[in-house]
Amino acid sequence: MAGDDNRHMTPTTLPHGVAELADWGVIRARGADAAAFLHGQLTSDTLALDPTQARLAGYCSAKGRLLASFVVWKETGGDVLLACSADLLAPTLKRLRMFVLRAKCVLSDASEEITLRGLAGPMATAWLAGSAPGTAWERGEGDGFSVIRQPDAAGGTRYLCAGNVTPPLPPLPPEDWRWLEVRSGLARIELATVEQFVPQMVNYDLLAGVDFHKGCYPGQEVVARSQYRGGIKRRSFLFETDGTARAGDDVFQPDDAAQPAGKVVNAALQPPGLDRGRLALVEVKLAALSSDRLHLGSADGPLLRRVDLPYDVPLDPVGTA
């Protein structure tokens, strides 16, 4: 059974305020062909994207493995912005530039001009006022900033704020924002997990991070084959652990100690009000879930205790998810 890591916490007592997101960066795509170029590179539709929306998107290798993940939105002027893990920005930007060719699209690192902050809780919603998007993946605009509603975490609201404004909100420790990220079940590809997962392994097909009706992109055949030919045998789930979980750490089960049963996607320290230890989003073999004996780092490492995701994950490995 999944546990409940919301004990002692409510939406009003969850971590709240404004966090400086130094572990995020921003790529800018500018030019008449910017949206069309990205449409041919990412797992989501960027041609149909309008300035009131944002999207989750993956960037895959030819083998369908995720090289990076993005929060993508389009500015009113037409530029497309892609927020990603800062440790992947430089290699991802370099790789994308290789494929621009004759397209009218200029790609640049916009991290210095666009500061990313995480806003959480009722005070953030009140400060945003009419700029606050009502549902996940909607985009609003304020005076000098964009704001994107992110999926809720433990019932609490979250926003990604892009701009140079400093909201007058209590400072939120970056580790608490990271916990909210993990708790939402929305995977972010980091340097430690590059080329480890096809999108379905981190539930992107369940979170509108893959458009199965758009045109081709790198790895599209592999991703589609996994979806429609019963190839999804691994998914991501939330776990608590007393161990020091980090992205990229392997997970084992005692019955098969010779090979990993899964891998940590993202992890964060639990905030005050919960048991100490860490919360981890873990990609794991569906066949290994039934044992309830998954361990971090080795077959006799710290135990992983499963907790609820905020969305349903199909457990049938032969289904089309």
Describe the structure.
This protein is of the alpha+beta class and 321 residues long. The protein folds into two domains: 17-183, Gyrase A, domain 2 (2-Layer Sandwich); 198-307, Elongation Factor Tu (Ef-tu), domain 3. The chain is 15% helix and 31% strand. It contains six helices and 16 strands. A six-stranded antiparallel beta barrel has the order 11-14-13-12-15-16. The protein has a five-stranded antiparallel beta sheet with strand order 1-7-10-9-8. Strands 3-4-5-2-6 form a five-stranded antiparallel beta sheet. A hairpin with a 2-residue loop joins strand 8 and strand 9 (145-153).
The geometry reads as: globular
> What is the CATH architecture descriptor of the largest domain?
2-Layer Sandwich
| Strand tally | 16
Query: Percentage of helical residues?
Result: 10-25%
